[in-house]
Specification:
Chain A: This is DNA sliding clamp PCNA. Chain A: It comes from Xylaria flabelliformis. Chain A: It is found in: Nucleus. Chain A: Residues 127-254 form the Proliferating cell nuclear antigen PCNA C-terminal domain. The complex is a heterodimer. By secondary structure, chain A is an alpha+beta fold. Helices cover 15% and strands 42% of the residues of chain A. Chain A is built from four helices and 19 strands. A nine-stranded antiparallel sheet of chain A has the order 6-2-3-4-19-18-17-11-15. By secondary structure, chain B is of the alpha+beta class. Among the domains of chain B are: 41-92 and 121-208, no CATH class; 210-246 and 335-431, no CATH class. Chain B has helices at residues 8-14, 111-117, 135-143, 158-163, 170-176, 182-194, 210-225, 231-242, 266-277, 284-298, 310-314, 322-332, 341-360, 363-374, 382-437, 441-447, 457-460; strands spanning 41-43, 53-58, 65-71, 75-83, 92-95, 119-122, 126-133, 156-157, 195-200, 203-208, 462-463. The N and C termini of chain B lie far apart (103 Å). The relative contact order of chain B is 0.09. The A-B interface holds A 20-25, 40-47, 71-74, 76, 124-129, 156, 208, 210-211, 214, 217, 233-234, 250, 252-257 and B 437-443, 445-447, 449-465. β10 (126-127) of chain A pairs antiparallel with β11 of chain B, so a sheet runs across the interface.
């Protein structure tokens, strides 16, 4: 059986909020190392991968591997009842047909308990190899979000160009074109505003802005976002959660018709 | 024509060359095994003499061996089989006493045979009626040489004509010698009716003439059509085809009266039944008609006989007050056009002609005859043709009107279908809704994204094993 108690309960809410607009139903795969999630969108051009390590929970107990097939919209509805300082506990049987979610108020003596019906989801699991990316950009997540939403107003796709000069987000649409260029930036006092660009070779790739904006819904999870690019492989957008837990998005680049 | 009952014994006695054994003679008190040649019941003409024989001749239409009664004095007779339909099986109970003399034909029968004959039950309730047939039809096949045109035909003697069918029907050759050549003279006389003849010495020679045949058949058809045709034929071929659609009325249920005519004119019976027996290859319709009429004849409870006037036969008659009702109904349901007496008689004539052609005339001649008929100066079918074309036009209109009505009916069906479709749509929408409830707005939005040129994730990342 599974029993996982999360003190930073909002992490769960934010993770679900970030994924629910990309994926409808998905399996939360629970094992002794933590809770993992991998799912693709309907078009199978984007992939989300999440790992909440066991260390994030206190306590965490999972005797055997359990797949929790969850409709994310339904989970969102339950998580709406979650308040900021609540402790959340997930409980499930070994072969569960429902997931028990308990919210405990840390200040008041209030316990909310929900049972969410689970479903059988037949999902294929892709093996994602560790890749050496040609360009890795770490930047404030809010910055990335703003760039994406700004450019989305102009066009539906963006070309991300990483050179030694910096990283350039450019787009061309019906009303004109636009570009945002970021250079390496160090702020000693406010480190979270740093822009770090690591480059082994120049890269230029085009992506669907709709998807990128969608990824940016994970922005509340973290101040920082890591963007990794290599020619002819999917873009990786990574948000680090507490510790080594992460939420990663992969998006296939647009090849060919760049209109 | 007298009704005469003849037993199988008589029958066999008449067949000079009959090799079939006759009835089985057994003790009264033991049940005899079923005979494999059960007696048959014939109605033979009184005027046929003792010399009359049943012979096998080629059927003029179908060229199959068929039995005919030939009397050297009074001519040829064809047999008409009258049988109950298979659905209502009937049997004959036959009893003959030793002293019975069952008519002229039975005189030759020995009385001992009759005495031993006793009583009989036969399962085949068939009745064979001998009715006169023009021997012309029987010799007609000998005359035709389909390859030769009429001008090129040669005058040949009757012997040569008869020779041509000798192989197929040896009996014909036999009967030609009967009665000191009376049969032969009879046949030659009939031959003359359809042939151009030339006296060559003491012998006359014949050449087949189609025109003469047409005249001959037409005169027969005329005679047939002077009175109404047999009821079943009259209804099917004269009344129905000439019946005009009733316009201005929405729907009319025509219940054809089922009252049976118990007594039919002998001529009618003859014609009708001959169509039954003539051969198997008849149109199923006419066959059914014939058997139907037979069953109606044998049914005992006969209702009011219906006048076979065209107008009343078509309108529904339900009560016994035939006259008043039909008059009232005819008033209410006045058809668009009514066939005049001339048209009806012309139709009858045409049907009769076609009937004769299809029953007795070789198939190879029929089209020729019909073509010749339309060219006949003495019969003008124009009024009938005009009436029929007018009728077809009316029927077209009526059909169009009805199909308009059918649209209404279809609409109603459509309404049902529409409701069904709406129901389906509603269900589908509900299902979609339920699906969408589990689908966030973002997911819906992403569905609209143009993903052209984007590879699938499975192209980059391989499946975990």
């Amino acid at each position: 059986m599974l029993e996982a108690r999360l003190s930073q309960s909002m992490v769960l809410k934010k993770v679900v909020d970030a994924i629910k607009d990309l994926v409808q139903d998905c399996n939360f795969d629970c094992n002794d190392s933590g809770i993992a999630l991998q799912a693709m969108d309907n078009s199978h051009v984007a992939l989300v991968s999440m790992l909440l390590k066991a260390e994030s929970f206190e306590p965490y107990r999972c005797d055997r591997n359990i797949a929790l097939g969850v409709n994310l919209t339904s989970l969102t509805k339950v998580l709406r009842a979650l308040q900021n300082d609540d402790l959340v506990t997930l409980k499930a049987e070994d072969a569960p047909d429902s997931l028990n979610i308990t919210f405990e108020s840390s200040t008041a003596d209030r316990i909310s308990e929900y049972d969410l019906k689970l479903m059988d989801i037949d999902q294929e699991h892709l093996g994602i190899p560790d890749t050496e990316y040609a360009a890795t950009v770490t930047m404030p997540s809010s910055e990335f979000k703003r760039i994406c939403t700004d450019l989305q107003a102009m066009s539906e796709s963006v070309t991300i160009e990483a050179t030694k000069d910096g990283i350039k987000f450019s787009c061309a649409g019906d009303i004109g074109n636009g570009a945002v260029t970021l250079r390496n930036y160090q702020n000693v006092e406010k480190e979270h505003l740093n822009v770090d660009i690591e480059l082994t070779e120049p890269v230029s790739l085009t992506f669907s802005l709709k998807y990128l904006v969608n990824f940016c819904k994970a922005q509340p999870l973290s101040d920082r976002v890591k963007i990794c690019l290599s020619n002819e492989v999917p873009l990786l957008v990574e948000y680090l959660i507490t510790g080594t837990s992460f939420l990663r998005f992969y998006l296939a680049p647009k090849i060919g018709d760049e209109e | 024509m007298a009704r005469t009952r003849a037993s199988k014994g008589n029958d066999a006695a008449k067949k000079g060359d009959s090799s079939t054994t006759t009835s089985t003679s057994k003790s009264k008190y033991t049940l005899s095994p079923p005979s494999n040649s059960p007696p048959k019941i014939f109605i033979l003409p009184k005027k046929a003499t003792n010399e009359a024989r049943i012979v096998s001749l080629l059927h003029p239409r179908y060229a199959t061996p068929t039995r005919y009664l030939v009397c050297p004095e009074t001519g040829f007779y064809e047999f008409t089989r009258i049988a109950a339909p298979k659905s209502t099986p009937r049997s004959w109970l036959i009893q003959t006493n030793g002293h019975e003399t069952s008519g002229v034909d039975a005189e030759t029968t020995s009385s001992e045979r009759d005495a031993s004959f006793g009583t009989y039950v036969t399962s085949g309730a068939e009745l064979f009626v001998a009715t006169p047939i023009d021997p012309l039809f029987l010799i007609l096949p000998t005359l035709i040489d389909p390859d030769a045109k009429s001008e090129k035909r040669r005058y040949v003697s009757s012997d040569d004509h008869f020779d041509r069918i000798q192989e197929e029907s040896p009996h014909l050759w036999e009967i030609l010698r009967w009665g000191e050549g009376r049969v032969r003279r009879l046949l030659e006389a009939r031959l003359g009716a359809v042939c151009d003849t030339v006296e060559a010495g003491d012998e006359s020679v014949f050449r087949f003439s189609e025109d003469k045949l047409v005249t001959e058949v037409l005169s027969k058809a005329r005679r047939m059509s002077t009175q109404p045709l047999p009821r079943s034929m009259e209804e099917k071929f004269v009344v129905k085809p000439l019946e005009a659609p009733v316009l201005g009325l929405k729907r009319q249920v025509i219940t054809t009266t089922t009252t049976t005519t118990s007594t039919e004119a002998p001529a009618e019976t003859t014609q009708d039944d001959s169509s039954n027996s003539a051969s198997a290859n008849r149109t199923p319709g006419s066959k059914a008609e014939a058997s139907e009429s037979q069953s109606s004849v044998s049914s005992t409870g006969s209702g009011t006989s219906l006048t076979s006037e065209a107008s009343t036969a078509a309108t529904p008659v339900t009560s016994s007050d035939v006259e008043a009702d039909s008059a009232a109904l005819a008033e209410a349901l006045r058809p668009a056009i009514v066939a005049s007496a001339e048209v009806i008689s012309l139709q009858r004539l045409r049907i009769a002609f076609n009937f004769l052609c299809s029953s007795y005339v070789p198939a190879s001649l029929v089209t020729l005859l019909q073509a010749k008929l339309s060219a006949q100066p003495e019969v003008n079918f124009a009024p009938l043709d005009n009436y029929i074309s007018e009728l077809n036009r009316l029927k077209h209109e009526a059909a169009a009107a009805r199909s308009a009505g059918d649209f209404a009916r279809k609409r109603m069906l459509d309404d049902e279908e529409l409701a069904e479709r709406a129901e389906k749509k509603r269900k589908k929408e509900e299902e979609d809704k339920r699906k969408k409830a589990g689908e966030s707005r973002g997911v819906r939005e992403l569905k609209k994204v143009n993903t052209a040129g984007m590879k699938k994730m499975s192209d980059f990342f391989k499946k975990k094993t």
